[in-house]
Amino acid sequence: MIRHLREAGDLDAADATLILDTARELARLTGGREVKKLPTLRGRTVVNLFYEDSTRTRISFEAAAKRLSADVINFSAKGSSVSKGESLKDTALTLQAMGADAVVVRHGASGAPHRLANWVDGSVVNAGDGTHEHPTQALLDAFTMRERLGRLAGLNVTIVGDVLHSRVARSNVVLLNTLGAKVTLVGPPTLIPVDIASALGSGMTVSYDLDAVLPASDVVMMLRVQTERMNASYFPSAREYSRRYGMDGARMRRLPEHAIVMHPGPMNRGMEISPEVADSPRSTIVEQVANGVSVRMAVLYLLLGGK
């Protein structure tokens, strides 16, 4: 098993499948228990090092570590020495001195987890770096697809929206390609990177027409429009974006009967996804959050050599 999880490309098919299988087993072991705790990482220390705001991911990693009986230290850049100008390297050396066995890091700079891995002895897990990657989100998405549809190989997965700013999209394209799924990226030309096919490899196509690809889609993953990362006008208006690329009830009914709709959250309800779709039985949005804890448990368990 690998030592760090910095990007989806760190995983080959065997490693990724091992994580998904382990997550399923951990979900089974803790699912029916009143006390959802296993002693597997007792005595280990996991540090959550978050330089960007996060609700789902930070709480999910904290819950995962605590369910494995690890000691958890939550480090927020706000209110720490980072706000006084402390560098990532100096923070890393502090964590190293504390004996952190794993550092879960979210950072606004692409590549920060790679730098961090050079400075600490423990395992580094990327919880999102800039617009680069978010590998555990891709793993929990793959886990959710496999649980709902029974397989990953050969699935047609359509990822829709703000691909340009989405680390979730990048990690999903790489991981799903590794696991044998076919990915189609859909969005306005301004939000699809021109070099993405060459950067992310084969097994992927690009379309600008959402309605054309829906009938052949097994999975539709809607991405949040990341207005906080936009410094220009990428589409005429929110209404126009929603009309062309939003998932509403009419579009959902064009999907095959078995197809599911996903969203990594947080959602802009009424823009990229309508309440009718978000709250429908086809939606896996709540499942994705629950599955995230099991998948992150599996990642920590395997990286830290849990028995």
From TrEMBL:
Enzyme class: transferase
Catalysed reactions, as listed in the record: carbamoyl phosphate + L-aspartate = N-carbamoyl-L-aspartate + phosphate + H(+)
One Pfam match: OTCace
Signal sequence region: none
Residue span(s) of domain Aspartate/ornithine carbamoyltransferase Asp/Orn-binding: 154-303
Enzyme Commission number, as recorded: 2.1.3.2
Residue ranges of every copy of the Aspartate/ornithine carbamoyltransferase carbamoyl-P binding domain listed in the record: 3-147
SUPFAM superfamilies: Aspartate/ornithine carbamoyltransferase
GO BP: any one term: 'de novo' UMP biosynthetic process
Gene Ontology CC, one term: cytosol
InterPro entries noted in UniProt: Asp/Orn_carbamoyltranf_P-bd, Asp/Orn_carbamoylTrfase, Asp/Orn_carbamoylTrfase_sf, Asp_carbamoyltransf, Asp_carbamoyltransf_Asp/Orn-bd
Binding positions (L-aspartate): K84, R167, R224
Any GO molecular function: amino acid binding
Binding annotation for carbamoyl phosphate: R56, T57, R106, H134, Q137, G265, P266
Origin: domain of life: Bacteria
Keywords for this protein: Pyrimidine biosynthesis, Transferase
Functional pathway: Pyrimidine metabolism; UMP biosynthesis via de novo pathway; (S)-dihydroorotate from bicarbonate: step 2/3
PANTHER family: ASPARTATE CARBAMOYLTRANSFERASE, ORNITHINE CARBAMOYLTRANSFERASE, MITOCHONDRIAL
Quaternary structure note: Heterododecamer (2C3:3R2) of six catalytic PyrB chains organized as two trimers (C3), and six regulatory PyrI chains organized as three dimers (R2).
Role noted for this protein: Catalyzes the condensation of carbamoyl phosphate and aspartate to form carbamoyl aspartate and inorganic phosphate, the committed step in the de novo pyrimidine nucleotide biosynthesis pathway.
Similarity comment: Belongs to the aspartate/ornithine carbamoyltransferase superfamily. ATCase family.
Stated name of the protein: Aspartate carbamoyltransferase
Species of provenance: Catenuloplanes indicus
Taxonomic classification: Bacteria, Bacillati, Actinomycetota, Actinomycetes, Micromonosporales
